[in-house]
Prior knowledge:
Number of strands: 22
Structural class: mainly beta
Low-confidence stretches: 169-180
Helix content: under 10%
Largest sheet: 8 strands, parallel
Shape: globular
Number of helices: 1
Order of helices and strands: EEEEEEEEEEEEEEEEEEEEEEH
Radius of gyration: 16 Å
Strand order of the largest sheet: 1-4-7-10-12-15-18-21
Amino acid sequence: TLAAQRDLDVTGSLNAGHIALDIFRRGMVSGPIAASTLVIDGLGDLTLGGHISGVSELTIAEGTLRAANAESLGEGQIVFAGGKLELTNLSDTTLFQPITVVNSGSITFAGSGTLDSLINAGSDATGVLTAEAAGDLTISGQIGTGTPLQCFVGFAGRPGVPGQNPLIPARSIADLVRLS
């Protein structure tokens, strides 16, 4: 576990079975990160300058994780437990990793973004996920097909695009967002 009350700058690589980064102000990891699990915690902002490899689960518990694109996050599952993910590349970015929302999370695309992910709640109707794109926001993945979210909200700088074969199972909009 690396905990930083002030700024944390790592210019080399991080390699361990489990890595927890507890950031209270600002952090930067320039080199690659190799771990089976990676937890981002604390109220601060962490910028990923390198890439993540071998991670089966990336948990964003609090604070904000900034990465250029989805490829730099590796291929493992992303778990939101109150944190934010900002993809800073202005080009079209596709988030393809499976996502679990334990309580809440948000995804921000600096340009146009596509959610081509399998997105589920940690337990039935508990997860709230917000996705926002400065350009188009395209949803082509599956939202709530395994465990329904309590709420999914999408914002786009330009009109949203449903994408090819999106699957958001619900008998009605009220069922999708669990309104009564």
